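Collaboration report, partner site 2.

Our partner group contributed sequences for two proteins of shared interest, and the home lab folded both. The records are reproduced in the order in which they were received, starting with the first partner submission.
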Amino acid sequence: MNADAGTEADADAVTGPPDGMVDARDDLTPMLSQYFDRCAEYEDALLLFQNGDFYQTYCDAAEEVARVCELTLTQREDSTGTYPMAGIPVDNAATYVERLLEAGYRIAVAEQVERPEAASGLVDRAVTQVITPGTVIDDELLGAGTKNYVAAVTREGRTRAVGAVDAATGECLVTSVDDEAGLYAELDRLAPAELLVGPDASVDTETLAVAPMMTDHEAADLDVEAAAETLSAYVSRPDAVVEGDAERRACGAALAYAEWTQGDDGPLDYVTRIRRYDPRAALGLDATAVRSLELFENRGAGASETLFDVLDDTACALGRRKLDGWLRRPLVDRERIEARLDAVDALADAVLARETIRDALHAVYDLERLSGRISRGRADARDLRSLKATLDAVPDVLAGVDGVDGDAARLDELRERIDPVDDVRDLIGRAIQPDPPVELTEGGVIREGFDDELDRLRETEREGRAWVADLEARERERTGIDSLSVGHNQVHGYYIEVTDPNLDRVPDDYTRRQTLKNAERFYTPALKRREDEILGAAERADTLEYERFCEVRESVAAETDRLQAVADALAQLDALATLAGVAVDRNYARPTFHDGGIDIEAGRHPVVEATQDRFVPNDAALPPGSVSLVTGPNMSGKSTYMRQVALIVVLAQMGSFVPADAARLPVVDRVFTRVGASDDIAGGQSTFMREMAELTAILHEATPDSLVLLDEVGRGTSTADGRAIARATAEFLHDEVGATTLFATHYHDLTGLAEAYEGVRNLHFAAEREDGDVTFLHRVADGPASSSYGVEVARMAGVPDPVVERSRALVEDADRGTNGHDDGIQVTLDGVDRDGVEVGATGGGAEADDGVAATLRETDLARTTPIEALNLLAALKDRVEES
């Protein structure tokens, strides 16, 4: 694997031995030689080399680890020289690994694969795991209830394919799209932490909402035949799961990379199914829409609430991950939407049953990640007990579901899918201690009564320890030495200790074991026999106990498919119960679907409502294909209104009730937003350029089934250009696209379009002005606004009084047709007067026609962009109308 972390970190520069050492490898100590051998095997990863209780690094790697992890750089000295050294504790490795991942490193973990006391010489070490941002599996490095994908991108002709694997849960997805825009939309939905890009594909990570680590993948794994071989280990008929070579290569490469990082020579047993999905089966939400609607990230200063925050009252990590996925991919299949709504409706009405379900789900651990660790053979005894606690909760969950009345086929289906897995629960209950230790090799893991041979060994050990415990009293009585004591240490084993003044009373059967400053330690033949019995029984018992634990873990791992099916059913039930609870607590209404337009009664913005004491509801009656021009002052609620319409649509199509008294909605295919913008200086785009790029995507991709939100299109350029672009855009959406559109604007002359176009209508946000003060009513009403109240808003914001008064005077002058100096000159901007007429334009119809013809003849249409064409069309249209 070749690494390009996208940071200053350079893995190739820190893993190998210093310059000049390669030729002298034979002179290194065996341990350092082993260290650099493992480094060479994983040359583009930083190697953590276990040495007892620490993961050590040496030479250049040590200097990097010390710098990134803020550790003290030490030295290792031996017969061959002095080497920089830095180590991190095994028991607290996650903290430092997280820092190294954030710095852009891949990490290879070389663990001791044999016990030091059992090694004949140098302890053997092998790389058991490669940790990368996209293949992290440890809970300490992952957020609860989150997804973490490594994705692969390939291309065959026009088709771009994406394969993604969550190495922690075993989820595997694959899809394909026909264009670059679709590819970026899917990558933004998946938000992979790591991306593998095939040699025939390309991805500009700067266009993604979150830039992943880029990995140059082995070309061999991207080969069609290699990918087919990888896939055949997971599904008997790959062609029944994936479509085409691009999907086969992408999915196979992602799985092969995940296998490599987990140190597995074969398939990942916990990847029990590969799911292919069609992006068109979900409501289209590109990164701009997700960001503008603040579904997962709030861009407001000091604000933290998002739509997901409002919805997320899930009881367990499984449900949180499922709810996140539903919000990222709302449905477009009306039947599936209604099935979810039926389930939410039934759970909303069944208060006691819903609380029973939620109480039980609070005891559920992250079953998907648990089953993954168990399948990989990396689960400890506490993981198995966590699995049992989860399965213990299943009967209560089922009892809650049985208590739900009403017709909800989805709940009935989930009820059938929730397998109690009683055999696994019983096995863990019989085999594993209720509160087992973390270490698996030191005993105390397997319950008494599970294995007869283990019980016999433990009894031998207990009897021996009891005999030793009584030895002190017996020997004091036999020897008459009251200060005699019996003890044990790891070096010398069991001993009888006698102080120097009493040595003359030591029996003949005592054999000296150790001399201390003021005492001697002895053993007897009987004590030595008991010691051998105790130690022998303890060692054999520890070994046997570990073997029995591994057998139990393997038996549980064999049921991974069943466990993951239960996990998915519990996740869906948690998400549905959460949506029902939110609907009840926040007074949401069930939406209904029809073939008409958007009709919302007393709609509310779910996030603003949740964070403010008072919210003014508003209706929304948007006929299909209509363009609604929304005018009114800043701060009056235009943007909030538009967003709340879109959020109600998103909530409804994810299967949630909505914040409204009632909502009759069509099924929308995509939601587009052009709401606010910012500079992309690094990408060479100004605010206006970004606005135009987003507008271009909307005008090209929107359909009659789309919902489009536009806010202040054309504000980033001159008044004349901005007005022209805004008008041409509104006309194009009405005439050519036919999408239902909400278009907020301060260009009040656009409101005249409602008279010229049947499908264009005016809405405004009402305000009251009294004695120079403006009160925003936050209510939407039909018709255009009478004023933008810009000067009043400036005064409210604290602009100095002289500026406010001068501004008010200039507005009044402009309304009278002067430029503020009473010289009779009409105010013009960029050659266009206040009424939009080009200064100096001819008034004769024939001359205007000649001018239009001349302009068209001089225009190179092959080199004209869509936006330039819209501007030109608007200018020509205005010229003809004026003539």
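Second partner submission, folded after the first:
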Amino acid sequence: MRPLSTSLIAVATALLATGSPAFAQDAPVGDPAAEAQDVAPPADDAEEIVVTGTRTQGRSRLDSASPVDVLSGAALRNQGTTELGAALAAVAPSIDFPRPSAVDGTDAIRPATLRGLSPDQTLVLINGTRANASALLNVNGSVGRGSAAVDLNTIPTAALDRIEVLRDGASAQYGSDAIAGVINVRLKEARSGGGASLTYGFYNTDIDTARGSRHVSGEHAVTASAWQGIGFGNDGYLTLTGEYLKRQPTNRADYDPRVTPTRVTGRFGDPEVEQYTGYANAGIGIGEAWKLYGWAGYQERDSSSAAFPRLPAAAGAVSGLYPNGFLPLINTKSSNVNTALGLKGELAGWNIDLSAAYGRNKIDYRTLNSANYAYGNNSPTNFYDGALIYDQWVLGIDVARTFDVFQSLNVAFGVEQRREGFKITPGERASYDYPATGAVPGQAPGAQGFGGFSPLNSIERGRKNYSGYLDLEARLSDSFLIGVAGRAEHYTDFGDTANGKVSLRYDAAPWLAIRGTASAGFRAPSLQQQYFTSVASVVQNGSPILTGTFPSTSPVAVALGGKQLQPEKSTNLSLGTVIRSGGFDLTIDAYQIRLRNQLALSENIQASFSPQVAAILAPYSVSAGRFFINGLRSRVRGIDAVAHYRLDTTDAGRFDFTVAGNLNQTRVDRASIPTSTATVNPAPVLFARNRILSIEEGTPGEKVTGTIDWQAGDIGITARATYYGNVNQPGTAANGSADINSGKHTLTDLELRYQPAKGAQFALGVNNLFDVYPDASPAALNTTGVVGFPYFSPFGFGGRYIYARAGFSW
């Protein structure tokens, strides 16, 4: 467990020499030249208007009562990566985007974290409307285990105007999931202008694993994107964006000690990806006071990652198919739809916004280059494993008005209805079962690498949610602002919840303000957590025996102590200050988040643990089972600090210096034991040491980013250094001897670009200039040679990445 310290100040001072357009406002709508230029204009940072965390119009980020980062689309695009999750993590220290490998579907759909909390404890909005979560439930040992989060990488950076990150609990304002904060993605609204770009990058890196070294030059990625603003009518706009991504897989596996001569047999790194994405964002005025708006986004992603290699000795049952062994590939095909249609305007002095949104994610699973040992040499080599499907409808009305009470009083209220659905469809028989006849004796069924979903796992469930909120924000005087919000919700599965929030801000002087918030928050258990089922059947002594993940209300889970899942609850406190003078501003915000009823996936409770547990499971013919339970309490404490200075010179151009840091400490206070197994002596372990430590130490306790952005005419340079504190990938040994630590490291990125307002544009850059890796996995803990580096690493383990970007704006 890492204590908070003054290391933020020390690291920030060291990085101040390197210093972002990350907090600069993007080109304003309606300025075709600025839109085409796709770089941030030299505007006053203090005047950035935010819509996240407040329902008062015209509030700037430095005038808000809660900390809000405004990340320009230009800052997110002027990087080597075109993945939104990775681009966000590069410029926002409170956000982390680990790049896990060898964790099945999570290889392809990677979650981001805010303030070290679970990925599903951050609400993601698109243009202020709730985005749909991924159908994927992270059930393996990655950061965010047990979560079903929004896939940020379904949104192309080319479609972005800006992103607002509210670093504060906001369930009283926005509902479920907003425990850590809110990420609000704002799409471009352009009537004219456009552009196209092609980004090509490749790795040039020296890989030093525990058992040897090698050089890699290649593993390239290509991204082609284009956008066009179209005006119609007096004020109508239609902004179209398209993106294509083709990425080769990377491999950072160690040498395999089981083969002679030793060589790399595994594949450990980024998956192979081919992806198509399209977005349309539109709006038009109706009459003098109303506007019709909407957007639609669609993405197809085809990813292929690798399971652990099957050497010839292990693949003996299929030696006729694979005499030299084989490497199973896990193929996921994700289809994501996100759409909305709304009408907003003024009626009798009230601003009214009516909206309807629909989102859907489907993930088809296939296992390729594999075998079902129970079929022997008659096994298929490619399998369809089934699909996960999640969808949601959101209907809402928001009403707001400002009154001349005190200096001003903004009153906002609204109601919302949401319907969610979750479905698992089974795969082909060979992916999960024995053959009808001629099964190979002693071999378990299922595709090697990723077994398919069987009819036992097939499920379809849904629920509805109804909510209403009231949000008041009053300017009592020139120096005092107070906000009060409350929200009540009803879910058709677990019942009711209510949450409130109080926000205060005192401007002691034009250059100094004190701000603070206190709120209660919640996160409803997702349908994926409630109903995900992955149960395999194995014949033992002529009888089928089940093992796997069961819903918490299934007979097996109830026998082990499972109950209807309840919402996670939080209490959030924050206190901060805003300092500004001329082109300089500094915000420092301390926070504490207490979580109770925290959801987690239990360990596999095995019948072999004790005769008493065997007796509990025997009536269900189950050898082992795990399930979700509200079994944890934890506390998160931390400090966010952002220092920014803008310097405009006559001859040398414009400089933006930013140092931003996050100190974060998570501690699990309690892990509970279900009543059904509490009387068993010894009681089975529900949450092992490694599960607790993955929550406490799975994300860096310190992260500091220093950025310098220089712009002179059409030429620009961005230099960024990011320091990551140590992350622990805990092992199963009780004494910690199997833990793998990433170490403390600093990564440096550099980009040089030529970006005129119109015409040809070009950029050259390097991510991870000095080819920094996390500490290698020790050879003694990597007996297969596959996991060359800890996959908990907050910056991945790719090495130096060189890229070029060419484009044309009009």
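Feedback sent to the partner group on the second submission included the following. Residues 7-809 form a domain with the Maltoporin; Chain A fold (CATH 2.40.170.20). Confidence is low (pLDDT under 50) at residues 1-46.
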